[in-house]
Design goal:
609 residues; alpha+beta; Jelly Rolls; Beta-galactosidase, Chain A, domain 5; TIM Barrel; 3 domains; 10-stranded antiparallel β-sheet; 43 strands; 37% strand; elongated
Length: 609
């Protein structure tokens, strides 16, 4: 399975990034009303015949239909003869059959026929625009019915470098190519599919790292100086790809509105049954992490959005779309409000779009934003084998490593943070005496705040009011936490400490000292959000946490988050900057984690909620 799929995905990437088709030119059936696209025979399997004339070469399709021809080099001309396939079935239904043929390039219609009946044979001879490397052949019905809409593109030929190329030299791709890019967006009111292929384009293959090929692709609008940069990875031993997209305003004034950014926008052929496998997130209910298996039937839509801006609240950011001939497992890397949209069309083919739920913003001069990261692994035949392969992909390339080996789930022993230090030391002594081999000594919430907030257990006291006061509670831990960390190390355990740095209760010291760093409405016991998109706030938090981690010998940092940030982000956005606060916060969060790992040797970061 892997070798064949690896070749398919390699071709997919070559065409998308480098316009490098197998044999120099190829085609794909993007849409097919019935049956399959055929080379040199009609859709029903008979010889191509228009108005009683038999053709030895051509394409047999069925309306509504879209066929895309990709070329490595610019094409100068397109020629064909089009019409309804002349066979016994189409003759019987001839009175109801009316088809319209058209040819497009770069989102622009170059030619369109009038309504074509069973007795019409129409020659097509088009001079293509300069630098055209992709053309789309479309057929649609002239009425509401596609019954017996057998359509022929006979004697199809394109001209490249003065040489005529027929369909005999073209290969049909098993996986449609998201040309010119596997992402999409709207810019100044237009969809990128209509213009991105006309922008300045450059792709560079970086030095190979192990068994991963790395590419940087750039598109630039010469009018507004908006640049789209995609960092793209192709795995050589697993049929998987990963990418992330950046938008940069390289001009001196604001860009037009960029909106509806879809970090992934791809198309799968769907033959027969299609099933979506997805898992619920966690809301502390009996259905947490439940795996659901849902059919995706023709003419249906299905969506997934997370709740409140937390990335695994309603749904886990992993799903498997199983169909034929090729299925795909997708992962979304975004710790905010992502959304996925599936649409299965009447012909069975499936569109998948994924990205942030809301983007509608202009970029200031010199400004850059990023999209969610996308990981896709393609597979065929055995579902369980695909799951195992996906696990191997994550284990080898994504699970953090320590001392060259992937991290394994540690054995921890947890304790209430408000429990006094002497009780912690007594527990550690018992573990040592009884030779209990835990990996980490875990102190949970309640260790912080003023003396008055001392809470001997989670069911008493007002410890919860002091989230955001990350000073060690002197009543519970008069000598701080270091004696506990040292005692744990003496028994072979490392120290794990709970934190929740993004949330602060209104009135706590950080929120009072730097109110401009926090989002949200002030009021008694109200949650505020530390805005990690504020560079000063993020840098200050990073310095504070690095010092705290080092001073208390913390080896596993557990970050919690007990609030929904979405309304805080969106309330802070201006009308023409919707999505920017969320983007900056998530970018800041990732930078915060990167800096902790950079400056705190062997630190492990765990997160929950």
């Amino acid at each position: 399975m892997n070798i064949q799929m690896q070749k398919v995905i390699g071709n997919w990437v070559d065409i998308m990034l480098k316009s490098a088709c197998p044999n120099g030119i190829c085609m794909e059936a993007r849409k097919q009303g019935w049956g399959s696209l055929n080379i040199n025979k009609a859709v029903a399997g008979n010889r191509i015949c228009i108005c009683g004339k038999v053709f030895e070469s051509g394409l047999g399709t069925h309306a509504d239909s879209e066929i895309i021809i990709h070329s490595n080099k610019p094409l100068s001309h397109f020629r064909a003869v089009v019409g309804i396939d002349d066979n016994k079935d189409t003759r019987i239904h001839a009175q109801k059959l009316k088809l319209i043929f058209s040819v497009e390039a770069n989102g622009r219609k170059l030619w369109e026929s009038s309504e074509c009946g069973i007795n019409d044979s129409i020659p097509v001879n088009i001079r293509l625009p300069f630098r055209t490397k992709e053309i789309t052949l479309k057929v649609r019905t002239g009425n509401d019915s596609i019954n017996y809409a057998h359509a022929d593109w006979a004697d199809v030929a394109v001209v490249c470098d003065g040489h005529e190329i027929t369909v005999r030299e073209m290969e049909i791709l098993p996986l449609p190519v998201p040309f010119p890019a596997p992402f999409s967006f709207c810019y100044d009111g237009k969809n990128s599919s209509a213009f991105l292929g006309t922008w300045e384009y450059d792709v560079q293959k970086k030095k190979k790292s192990g068994d991963i090929d790395s590419y940087t692709a750039r598109w630039r609008d010469i009018k507004t100086n908006l640049e789209c940069r995609m960092e793209f990875l192709l795995f050589q031993k697993i049929p998987a790809v990963e990418w992330i997209v950046y938008f940069t305003n390289k001009g001196e004034r604001d860009t037009p509105i960029i909106e509806n950014i879809q970090a992934a926008d791809i198309f799968l052929p769907g033959k027969g049954e299609a099933i979506l496998f997805r898992s619920r997130g966690s809301q502390c209910t009996i259905s947490d992490f439940e795996l659901l298996q849902e059919p995706l039937n023709p003419n249906t839509k299905l969506s997934m959005t997370v709740g409140g801006g937390r990335s695994s609240n309603l749904w886990l950011p992993f799903f498997n779309l199983e169909t034929s001939p090729i299925s795909v497992i997708t992962a979304i890397g975004w710790s905010g409000q992502w959304a996925v949209y599936f649409e299965r069309h009447s012909d069975g083919n499936i569109s998948t779009r994924a990205g942030m739920e809301l983007t509608h913003l202009k970029l200031h001069a010199g400004e850059t934003i990023r999209t969610p990261r996308i990981l896709m692994m393609f597979w065929q035949k055995e579902r369980q084998a695909a799951y195992n392969l996906f696990r191997r992909l994550l284990m080898k390339y994504y699970v953090p490593k320590q001392h060259g080996k992937p991290l394994r789930g540690p054995l921890t022993v947890g304790h209430w943070g408000g429990m006094k230090s002497n009780e912690h030391l007594q527990r550690i002594a018992v573990y040592k005496r009884e030779k209990l081999s835990y990996d980490y000594y875990w102190i949970d919430a309640g260790w912080y705040g003023p003396s008055s907030s001392y809470s001997p257990d989670e069911f008493s006291g007002d410890w919860w009011k002091h989230v955001g006061n990350w000073t060690i509670n002197p009543a519970a831990h008069p000598a701080g936490l270091l004696p506990i960390a040292k005692a744990a190390k003496g028994t072979g355990m490392k120290f794990l400490l709970w934190f929740e740095p993004e949330r602060a209760i209104s009135g706590t010291p950080w929120a009072e000292k730097k109110p401009e760093w926090f989002l949200g409405e002030r009021g008694e016991n109200k949650n505020l959000l530390l805005n990690l998109g504020n560079v000063s706030a993020r840098r200050w938090l990073t310095r504070y946490m690095i010092k705290f981690i080092r001073n208390n010998r913390i080896r596993l940092y557990r970050q919690d988050f007990n609030m929904d940030p979405l309304d805080y982000w969106r309330s802070a956005d201006e009308k023409d900057r919707q999505g920017i606060t969320e983007i900056r916060h998530i970018e800041g969060l990732y930078r915060f984690w990167d800096d902790l790992r950079k400056h705190c040797k062997d630190l492990i970061i765990d997160n929950c909620s």
